[in-house]
Amino acid sequence: MIRKLPILFCGVALGVVATVAITQAPMLMGGAHAAVTDTYKQLNLFGDVFERVRSDYVEQPDDSKLVEAAINGMLTSLDPHSSYMDAKSFQDMQVQTKGEFGGLGIEVTMEDNNLKVVSPIDDSPASKAGILAGDVITALDGDPVQGMTLQQAVDKMRGAVNTPITLKILRGGKGDAMDVKVVRDIIRVKSVRSKKLGNDIGYIRITQFTEQTFDGLKKSLDQLNKDIGQDKIKGYVIDLRNNPGGLLDQAIQVSDAFLERGEIVSTRGRSPDDVQRYTARSGDLTGGKPVIVLVNGGSASASEIVAGALQDHKRATILGTRSFGKGSVQTIIPLQGNGALRLTTARYYTPSGRSIQAKGIEPEIVVQENVPADLKGKDQTSGEAGLKGHLANPGDDKSEEGGSSAYVPADEKDDTQLQQAIDLLHGSQKSAFFPPDPKAGVPN
């Protein structure tokens, strides 16, 4: 999940080496003075190493690449979601959040020096080539991923439209790696799709949270009301499976679309005073119709905010398998030279005050898909808890949970999760969890 902020710092990271020798510590007393002195000793150590590499390395190094590598090393030591973006990568990120960009259409993270697929985007080249959530990419066009930064790997996957790239895929950590050829294309993310299920159920699929998502949701609801008739709609299925997340403000607006009042999400930073709360405004766009939200092991971040808010308020029943468990907020901080810092600045909490970091959202109704024999054991995501260096869950018990299956059948007739949601809305199946009792939700 990304929270966009105005420029906060200019040249802080890039200016460290140049200013270390001439900056003086402020007048401090006791332990505070000792801590500052120690910090500057460490920065001077970095400056010494930097100068030694520049003067004595066997070949003339590129100063800017040295600094960028040092920054990347510092950030990747924090958690899997903090990173540095150069000017091109920053521009690409801005374009991507608008919902149109060039590439393969794949959300990845770095784990144990390999690229792990969080989720392919619907109808993207990656999705059409059969790439699955949880796949590990070990090589790009024959070049091993080990040794690359996440940004270097992403840059290598980008390229001119209609040009191919071969990904070496290890699925489920088992068997031999296989080569998958993917042809690059312009990725136009229609983040919201909708259709009728029969004559009385509205189905809305949200693939990720871009700047267009809430508007797309509103248009879909209006169209379904027109196609089915508001009085005839029995309820809605909101499909967030394999949705890797996106913009915080869009997750808040989507949640607000189904709530009349109450807290949607809160974020808490390092300082006890650094707390922000986001609340719903009056007006449920569905008129209070029953809602079932589908999640799985590929549902992460912003999609977990929506599921958590509707679950805590007992506004929707969550069905599927446990979600990914990414409960942190990244702030994009533009830097001098048009690059940017993607820094984890807060954890988010659902309305009941729970952190889903490295735990995920547990559905009230757990439904497993019938996974084909050739994919069994290979359809599981490790979740946030499986990412090296992930933030710990701040709860008292410190318990964590791995991911779950991210398999979704291509044919909706074989989609066990979707079919059970339909049966619940039609009343042909019963569950104590559906419809939920709003009175049992968190206080508004």
UniProtKB/TrEMBL annotation:
Q: Which InterPro entries match?
A: ClpP/crotonase-like_dom_sf, CtpA/B_N, PDZ, PDZ_sf, Peptidase_S41A, Tail-specific_protease
Start and end residues of each stretch annotated as Disordered: 375-416
Q: Does the keyword Protease apply?
A: yes
Instruction: Give all residue intervals belonging to the PDZ domain.
Output: 90-160
| Family annotation (SMART domains) | PDZ, TSPc
UniProt keywords (A-Z) are: Hydrolase, Protease, Serine protease
Q: Which Gene3D superfamilies match?
A: 2-enoyl-CoA Hydratase, Chain A, domain 1 (3.90.226.10), 2.30.42.10, 3.30.750.44
Spell out the Pfam families in the cross-references: CtpB_N-like, PDZ_2, Peptidase_S41
Concerning NCBIfam families, the annotation shows:
prc (TIGR00225)
UniProt similarity note: Belongs to the peptidase S41A family.
Instruction: Indicate what this protein is called per its UniProt record.
Output: Peptidase S41
Q: What is the lineage of its organism?
A: Bacteria, Pseudomonadati, Pseudomonadota, Alphaproteobacteria, Hyphomicrobiales
